[in-house]
Amino acid sequence: MDLSVVIPVYNEAQSLPELVERLHATLASLQLKYEVIFVDDGSRDSSPKVLRQLAEEYPWIKVILLRRNYGQTSALQTGIQHARGEIVVLMDSDLENDPADIPRLLDKLREGYDVVSGWRQNRWQNQWFTRRLPSMTANMLISRLSGVHLHDYGCTLKAYRREVISSVRLYGRMHRFIPIYAKWEGGRITEIPVSYQPRKYGKSHYGFSRIISVLLDLLLIIFLDRYIQRPMQFFGGVGLVSILLGVFSMGLAIYYKLTGQKDLVQTPLPIFTALFISVGVVLLLNGIIAELLIRVYYEAADRPLVQTRDKLNFETPLPNPS
Ligand code: UDP
Ligand code: MG
Question: Which one of 27, 32, 91, 290 has the largest count of C-beta atoms within 10 Å of its C-beta?
Fold first, then answer.
């Protein structure tokens, strides 16, 4: 199998026939062995029925029906786990992404990249303040903080080489950060502009609250990016600063008292002392627990600590000692 296209579906019955038609037109012209995996994320409309019909009609369509609505990330993760292709392309099912862009993504991938990200350049032309500005800010923030320089993390349409995506485990709403996971696996990442059409049918499943959830996910990603193999440095660092602040305010309080300027109860310093020192101690202990947890994380599943691109001269068996 050369190519797997993975598509999450939640209440998109109206879009599906046209989507499949366009997929067929593009993929059939590619001279590749391909499959399209639709993951129905517990739709409550007739999407499952439509998907069953389409799967009967086209043998390259594979369908996974989830029992309930788990969210876009879990749907994508399920599809990725079932994908057999050397290249995995993810895209939305609401016709906002165009299958006709897939060949260009593949061409770029063949230039030697592991991830080619779609960039919807012409999006939100008329909604500058409510949509375009928040989206640009979020993307700039993610790009700066993660060191993976893309303009459009939210665009699902991206192509991945199997090696960088097959071991990815996506939790929560983390699908927009797959390129960052790919960077952790040592992947080479680039982007190309892709077309964007606003939804024809139905409406977006997300509202304003997505901004907060993206921010929280970003914090977590940054922490994982920098400290996953040394959490004590993070917790311990913050903890030590806190303890120092506590010791400083204690010193200041005692100084005021001894020089007769202010009594202990006249300043908030004793409260600061207690607060900073206890928070600091708790953070240090957290760091120790985190260190124990990452040992379990890596060793229980036999996860490698590093990703090797290649190994040379390792195939030869060790010489027999006799
Ligand atoms: N989706 C899903 N499960 C959900 C919500 C959305 O599988 O709980 C799918 C949906 O069918 C679509 C894609 O995820 O193919 C993106 O969703 P949507 O268009 O609502 O998001 P937006 O384009 O506004 O980011
Ligand atoms: Mg959409």
Answer: 91
3-class DSSP state for residue 3? strand
Q: Do residue 114 and residue 235 come from a single domain?
A: no
CA atoms of 258 and 254, how far apart (whole Å): 6
- Looking at the structure, tell me whether residues 97 and 10 fall in a common domain: yes
Does the beta carbon of 206 sit less than 6 angstroms from any atom of ligand 1?
A: yes
Which residue's alpha carbon is nearest to atom 16 within ligand 1?
Answer: 92
92 close to ligand 1 (CB < 6 Angstrom): yes
Checking if the pLDDT of 322 tops 70, the result is no
Give me the domain span that covers residue 287: 231-301
pLDDT over 70 for what percent of the chain?
A: 98
pTM: 0.86
pLDDT digits (tens, 9 = 90+) for 77-118: 999 999 999 999 999 999 999 999 999 999 999 999 999 999
On whether both 267 and 192 belong to a single domain, the answer is no
- For residue 41 and ligand 1, the question of a CB distance below 6 A is answered with yes
Q: Tell me the DSSP string of 117-165.
A: EEEETTTTSS-IIIIIHHHHHHHHHHHHHHS---S-TT---EEEEHHHH
Number of structural domains the chain divides into: 2
pLDDT tens by residue, 213-252: 888 998 998 899 899 999 999 999 999 999 999 999 999 9
